[in-house]
Specification:
Layout (H helix, E strand, L loop, with lengths): L2 H17 L2 E2 H8 L3 H13 L3 E3 L6 E4 L1 H7 L8 H16 L2 E8 L2 E8 L14 E3 L4 H9 L2 H8 L14 H14 L2 E4 L6 E10 L2 E11 L8 H18 L1
Antiparallel strand pairs: 1-3, 2-3, 4-5, 4-9, 5-6, 7-8, 8-9
Helix pairs in contact: 1-2, 1-3, 2-3, 5-9, 6-8
Length: 245
């Protein structure tokens, strides 16, 4: 690839990072290149796994988790997971519940690490599972740290209901996000999996939200009386990871 093409690719990548999800026309204006050139660059970056298109019409573009993984190694050579694991271990020992680390990929989160509880009755999601933002503690926490336009764009899309307790009303979700911002953690009772409760908090770098952390377990054990204590624990753990990033 010629030097000019490499420079253009990084300019497009940085522009997407600043404005995601963002459309072709806006990107072309931002980077000052013809639409045809920007389109070729977008397709190349998609091919190598750095960008992905949304499912909306017209198409908009977003970073993939690969960007987070690579950027997380800047400076100290540690990835997001490397930084998070020690904190997750401490959180798991303190709470004795399952700890999830998720990172964004398009309009959902991907489970990138899980520390299991020693209890036989537990919350379980396989690594690599895609998680809807509006249906989960990690997703709501992540949304709470996103900018207003990203949230509004997300809420205009389809809000599926994995369980009868999933929030799907945009106004209800907006209200929940305001509460999450005030207290620093999210609460989700049966919204992703029936009978499972979770509390989550966003992990934020200087560039914005990059991941989310949660404590999950059976609703019979994670009762509302424990929410404040557990919520503050996951909030503080996420803040520690954020500072390390």
């Amino acid at each position: 690839m010629a030097t000019e093409s490499v420079v253009s690719a990084f300019r497009v990548l940085e522009a997407v990072a600043e404005a995601q999800p963002v459309g072709l026309s806006e990107l072309a204006r931002t980077v000052g290149l013809p639409k045809s050139s920007v389109q070729r660059t977008l397709l190349t970056l998609q091919e190598v796994g750095w960008l992905r298109p949304t499912d909306t019409t017209p198409t908009r573009w977003q970073l993939t988790y690969r960007v987070v993984a690579v950027v997380g190694r800047a400076g100290g050579g540690e990835s997001l997971r490397d930084i998070a694991i020690p904190v997750m271990n401490e959180l798991q020992l303190a709470t004795t519940e399952t700890i999830h680390l998720t990172a964004p990929d398009g309009d959902s989160l991907v489970l990138v690490e899980r520390l299991d509880t020693p209890h036989r009755l537990r919350a379980f999601l396989p690594l690599g599972e895609r998680i809807a933002l509006h249906a989960s503690a990690t997703g709501l926490a992540y949304l709470s740290a996103c900018d207003h336009q990203y949230v509004e764009d997300y809420l205009t899309g389809p809000l599926t209901a994995p369980t009868p307790d999933t929030m799907t009303d945009p106004d209800q979700i907006r209200s929940a996000l305001r509460e999450i911002r005030e207290r620093g953690y999210s609460m989700n009772i049966g919204g992703l999996s029936a009978g499972i409760s979770s509390l989550g908090a966003p992990i934020v770098s200087s560039a914005g939200p990059v991941a989310a952390l949660s404590i999950s377990g059976p609703s019979s054990r994670l009762v509302p009386e424990r929410f404040t204590e557990l919520g503050e624990q996951v909030r503080d753990a996420a803040a520690r990871i954020s500072r390390s990033l």
